[in-house]
Amino acid sequence: MSFLTETIEKEISEKKGHIITDNVILSIGEIVNLYKDKDLNLNPDFQRFFRWNNEQKSRLIESIFLGLPIPSFFVYEDNNSIWEVLDGLQRISSLLQYIGELRNNNGLIEEPLKLEGLQYLSSLEGTTWSDLSEKMQRGFKKNSLPFIVMKNETTEIKKYQLFQRLNRGGSTLSEAEVRSCIILMAPHGKELMQAIDTMVANTDFQNSIWLSDRKLKEKADYDLVIRYLCFEHTEITDLIKVVNVGDYLNKTISELASQKLDYVTEINQFKNIFFNINQQLSKDAFRRFQKDCDRFSGQFIMAQYEAMIYAILKTKNCNNLRKKLESLSLNQQYLDYSVGGISVKSRWNNILELARTTFENE
User: What is the pTM of this model?
Assistant: First the structure.
């Protein structure tokens, strides 16, 4: 056995020892009871990102009636032995709604699910739970479903990291939506998410970023606010070490959501910065400056957003933004490292401090 093989096997063995999971089979009736006893946390704030239509919900119910295999549900067990759903939230919500036990954010029972768009059980089309006989209801609730429980003793993979892995591959969630759910998992995530909602809705911010409808649908504006907050709370010595921007944003925003920030101050500073950006630059703020025609043009440039936001946050100065941005845009180093295809490590190493010193000196 080679040294490399031994090293790989040793690392896998050590890391696996830090990840503790249980495989559990539960009946639908047991799932309902866990939910009613508040031992199963669906985190209702996630519903804004996960939204099945009635046909999708109905197809799940049909699959259970037919005895088709259902993929495992992933849950995280916290210090109080409460299970938080990391993957399978919409499936469990659909089951609870069908049976008539799902409650909304106000604690009220959701409207019963009426089955529609079924492929095989046409006799169930248009029916609800109350249309079933007691025998059928009992039989449905006895169906068993597989759960994988990640124990809180796990030390190597954090809850948000598992959620990220489970919900970024085959999921329809965008990176920004996954990141928003990561925030909501943390102790102060709800307060931080409310602050982010306020920032995203700010008119000056929206007028400045000027994103396409497709980008807005993917919640790219949320990602820009998250990037702003991460930059505000990260020193340059750490920023220039970042290799994967997604991992950095996930880790940093999760840490920020785990502490109580001064949300009023955060929001007011954000509003002030984007008021100045919008007043002075409007939709030109994050577009390329063209020297030959003396104007800004083109699409939103992420590197320019990063450079300007970092420079303003670190210098606390919003004066003469157009002049500062034009000066930065004429710098060859900035031009070389603000184009597409440059790794985040190279980009941030070469333009962030350059932007700060340019904004300080202009």
Answer: 0.70
